[in-house]
Amino acid sequence: MPGPAPLALRAGAVRSWALRYGRRGTALLRRTPFPRPTARGWTVLASGLGLTVGGLVATTSIAVSAGLLLLVLLVLGVVMALVVAAPLRATRSTVRGIVQVGEVYRERITLRGTSLPIGPRTRLLVREQLDDTFASVSEAETYALVGPHEPPAVLDVEALAMHRGRTLVGPVTIRVEDPFGLLRIDRPVVPAEEIVVVPASTPLAAIDTGALAGAVSADEGRVGQGGSADDSELRPYRQGDPIRRVHWGQSARRGELHVRQTTQAQPPEAVIALDVRRESYQRLGRDDLAELSDLGGDAAFEHAVVVAASVARALSARTSRVLLVSDGAAGNTRHAGDAGSLTDVLVGLADIRLRSDARDVTEVLPDVRGRDVHGMTAVVTGHCTAEQAAELVSRTSGSSRGILATIVPPEPVVRGILDRGGWRTLVVPVTGAHAPGSIR
User: Fold this and answer.
1) How large is the average pLDDT for residues 307-336?
2) pLDDT confidence tier of residue 86, bands split at 50, 70 and 90
3) Entry pTM
4) With b meaning 16 or more CB within 10 Å and e meaning fewer, what string describes 258-290?
């Protein structure tokens, strides 16, 4: 039986190629906004329609021809703008999605034009959208030349993080105009991306490691990987265990591999409780913190968040886990950092907000104890009364150590209550309001 004719094979290949590129072109056009006339474009459109209609009414062929020529010019502009804008592709590359207040956020936008060997070359505007969370260090827009055989255009964006929280960077948009300046397309080429800005740190006095000594009570679990062979226990071998810990004698006797697991005390855990009640930051007097006393507590609270971040960074190097707790908007206790990651704690601090209906820290801590969290307790607040200090000491009797971090120095009676309860007081004032922070 004779095979298909070469002409039919070629026709099938051409039809397949046309369908594939037709679907691709349709998808590109569907994602591309229709061109909008510029001021010049509206003028040309109105003039073209006026000349055409007037020429038809007055039976003047020259006017009709001139009007049609202007309308054709607009149609050509539409085609040229779509041919340039539709195939454009862009990518955003950034080192990290979490940045600290005061650090510079950096990203690179790479824009590629058509991959076809023929096509128009044009210069277009590439722009990255930044909100008030960032202060632009470099220009967030540039003019790029795109077209066949042109290298990818690159836009490097640098912005200084000013405020903590979650924010969107983008979208990246391109602006394409036709060669006649009659039409314009503003097309997003890279979607918006979430960036988390975590609080910065403020200088702290050295937190004495003795404040953490004995933070784990004697009856709590103590399983580690150090120690000597005398205090070792045996357990079945698990994938990834060092081969040097295999106890060959016991393994041969029991018929399966067993490894030595030695026992020693784990580093203690740390709980950082941040007071989110607005009244705790509105009680600051003019003599203590004049520049923050009339701002509804918001600025003072932002400094307290920085203090909490600083304490978390200091304690994370000395504990097995740092946990952030605060009162949630739904009346529950918010936890961050359950996996022991400092990053999770900082992200939790980026999301936290001051509220007028929040519960006292002393009401939140019992929920933490219910989760079997033990060890160091650090409470960060703007103001602490004698009643609150006594309540803190009684609420945290299960932990061996505690730190009260405040923005303004507490009253002597508060210090006395905390000292008798084994707590230390850390004062971290706003820079310029007091001397550097101290601990006692």
Assistant:
1) 78
2) confident
3) 0.70
4) bbbebeebebbbbbbbbbbbbebbbebeeebbe
